[in-house]
Specification:
heterodimer, A: 598 residues, alpha/beta, Rossmann fold, 3 domains, 6-stranded parallel beta sheet, 25 helices, 39% helix, B: 218 residues, alpha+beta, Alpha-Beta Plaits, 4-stranded antiparallel beta sheet, elongated, flavoprotein (chain A), branched-chain amino acid biosynthesis (chain A), magnesium (chain A), flavin adenine dinucleotide binding (chain A)
Chain lengths: 598, 218
Amino acid sequence: MDRTAQQQPPTAQHDPPESDTSASQAEPSESDGVETGADAVVAALEAAGVDDLFGVQGGAIMPVYDALYDHDELNHVTMAHEQGAAHAADAYGIVTGEPGVCLATSGPGATNLVTGLADASMDSDPVLALTGQVPTDFVGSDAFQETDTTGVTQPITKHNSFAQDPDTVGDAVGTAWALANDGRQGPTLVDLPKDVSLAETTSEPDSPETPDTYSPPTEADEVVVRAATEALEATQRPVILAGGGVIKGEACDRLRSFAREYEIPVVTTMPGLGSFPEDDPLSMGMAGMHGTGYANLALANCDFLLGVGTRFDDRLTGGVETFAPEAEVAHVDIDPAEMSKNIFADYPLVGDARRVLDQLDDAIATGPDLTEWHETCKRWVETYPLEYEMPDSDPLKPEYVVETADAVTPEETIVTTGVGQHQMWACLFWEYTEPRTWVSSHGLGTMGYGLPAAIGAKVAAPETEVVCFEGDGSLLMTIQSLSVAVRENLDITVVVLNNEAIGMVRQWQDGFFEGRHMASEYGWVPEFDTLAEAFGARGFRIDEAEDVEATLTAAHEYDGPAVVDAHIDPEENVYPMVPSGGDNARFALNDEQLEGLE
Amino acid sequence: MSRGELPGAPPEKRRTPDGERTDQGIPVEGVDRQTHEPRRAVLSALVKHEPGVLAEVSGLFSRRQYNIESLTVGETIDDSLARMTIVVEESRPNIDQVKKQLAKRIPVISVRELEEAVQRELVIVKVDGDSPDQVNAITEMYDGQTLDAGPRSITVEITGDEQRIDAAIDAYRQFGIRELTRTGYAALARGEKPTAQVSEPNQAPTEAQVKTETIADD
C-alpha cells in the first residue's frame, strides 16, 4: 500500500495553483504564501481550521511566532507559563471537540508542557503541541535550552515527530493535528528545529490527513453484537456505564435515546459527566471512589454492564475482584487495547461509540422487563442521597457553595476544576446535563488544572459562562494564569473552596495515616481576594453561608475575571468514599465509617 | 457504624460469572480467567523505518512492564519499512495486550504473532585458542564458521534456533569462552502464510480480527 507521507510532498509541489485557489476560496484573509518552514507550519494550522493558539514565546520558537505576526486571523493567547498553555489547549479541545493548539520554545518551554501533555494523554483530550528546538546542527550537543523533547514526550503523546525538512514540515504539523483529532483522541507534538523553521520553502501543506496506515475501527463485529444483545435481552439488572468516550465520540444523543428506549439505568464515570443528563429519572449519577452510593450499588449489583467509552480506571472500579462481580461486561471502545485491559470484556465491541450503539439497537428484538430493577435502584437513591449539613450552620459548607453557584448561573455553564476535595464537591453537587460542560483533570489528577482550563474554555466558548472551582492548594500551583485572564479580559468566575490545606491528602491522613497531618496543612494561605485585586481581577470573600448567594451572583455578573475566596469548613471531608482498591458496594458516608473500612 | 452495617453483600458472598469467554462472547470450557501461565510468543511487527521507532517500541515494553526476551530490528525490501522480531514471555492476556499496544503506536503498521515460524538466532563466540582442532570440530558439527583465528583466540559464528545455540555455547565452554554476543531471534511465518504485511494494516485490529488470526495460525 502507498504511504502518504512519501507521496504528498511532490504532489503538493506540483499543484501550487490548485491549492492556492482552494485556499483563497476557503480563507478570505489574504496570506502571503509560504516562504519559510515557519510559514508552512502556520499554513498547516490554517488548513486545519485552527482559530486560537495558547503559547509562550522563546528563542527556538521565535521563527514560528514571527510567521504568526502576519496572521491576525489566528488568535494567539499569550500564557504566563507553558503548563498553563497545555491545560488551556486541553480544555479548548474538550469544549470544542477539536485539538487545542499550544506552542512553547525548546528546553524548559517544552518540559513545562509535559504535565499538560501527560494530562491530555490520560484523558484522551485532543491537543497539538508545537515546540521549538535548537538548530539541527546543534541537536545532540547539549546546546543552550536543548532537551530531547520527542524523547521526553514519547510516552505521553499519541504520536510525536521531529521535523527535519522545511518542505514537509507543514504536512507533519497537519498529520499531527489529524492524529490528535481522529480515532481515540490524544495529544500529539511536532518538534521544530529553528533552522527548519527559518529555511526557505514554498511547499504549501495539504489539508490535514492521518497516515494511510492509520485506520481506527468503526463498526463492531456483528457476531459479538448479536451475542451481547442476546445477553442483554435476558438480563434483569443491566446498567450502562457512560465514560468520556461517549462525549468524545459525539454519541451522547445516541446513548440517551438507547438508554431511554430500553429504560436502562445510567451511571457515568467522572469524564463522562454530562454525557447523560443527571436530572433524567434513569440517571444514577457518577460512580467510583467518590461516586454516589446509588451509582456504586448499581454497579456492584448489576448482572449486565454496558461500558461505553470508558477505560475502567482504578478510581472507578476499586478492587477489580469486587467490581460488578455478578455482571457480564459488554465493552464499547474505539481502542482495541482497552478491551480486557483492566476489566475482562465478555463482549468486546470495538468501534465508534455512536455506530456500535446503532448496531446494538438494531440487533435487540425486545428489551428486558426491568420493573423490579427500577424499584431497587429507586430505593438506593432514596436510601443514600447526597447529603451535607444545612448551610445555615456555621462554618460554611463547600457543598452549599457549589450548589448555589449552579443555581445562580445558566444551565449550559461550563465548569472547570483543579484536583482535590473541591473537584469532588464540584462533581457531586453540581448537576450536569450537557456534554462538554465539565472540564477537569481526571486520569492524571493535575492540581492547578482549573484556572488555565477556564481560560481555554472561555476562549473556546466566549458566549458561555465559565465557573472554575479551585482549592487553595491547587490554585496556588498555576495562579500566574490569572494575569492572562486579566490581560485578555476573560469573563470567568473562579471560586476558591479555601480550607487552608491540601484537603484530600489530609482526608487520607485522617482515614489511613492515623491523623498524622504531614505537609498537608498550610496554616496560612494568601488572601485570594486581595491577591486577585493585585492581578487586576475582581476579588470577593465569603465567610458566612448567608453571603454565598449574593456574592456568587455579584461575581458571576462582574464582566471580567472574578475570584471568590470562600472560606469553608476546614473539617469538611468528601463522602461517599470507597477506599483505594476497595469494594464499590462498601462505601463510607462519614469519617467513622471510613475508619471501619480501612 | 460497624463494618457489618455497611450496604451491600461482602465480596465472598457474591456470585461471579464462571470462566472465560472467547472474543466473540462464547464461554470457553475449563479456562479460569484468573490463572494464566506465562508462555513464550514470537511477534513480528512491520514498522516505519524512521528515527525513534525502536525507542518508541522498547519504551512501550518497559513502561508497561512487559517481559521482553529479545528484540531484533532490520531493513526489509522496502527502504521505508523495517521489521522487528520480538520475543516475549507473558501470560495470554498480557500477550494480547502487547500485540494491541504495539499495533496502537502510529509508526507500527502491522503486528502478528508467529505461532509457526522459521526462526534463527546468530551467536558470535570468542574462545581461547589453545585447542584449534577441537574448536574447529565443534564449529563444523554445528555448521558454524570461523570468523577469526589467532594464536590466543578463535572467534566463530553459529546460527540456529535457541536450543542449538545453547548447545553450541555449552560445547565451547570447555575451551574457555572469553566473550560472546547473541542477536536474538529473527523470524518469518512458515510456508505461504504472510508474516506482517503492509496490505493488511491492523493499526487497530478488532478483537474478531485478532481472533481470526490466532485461529488461522493454529
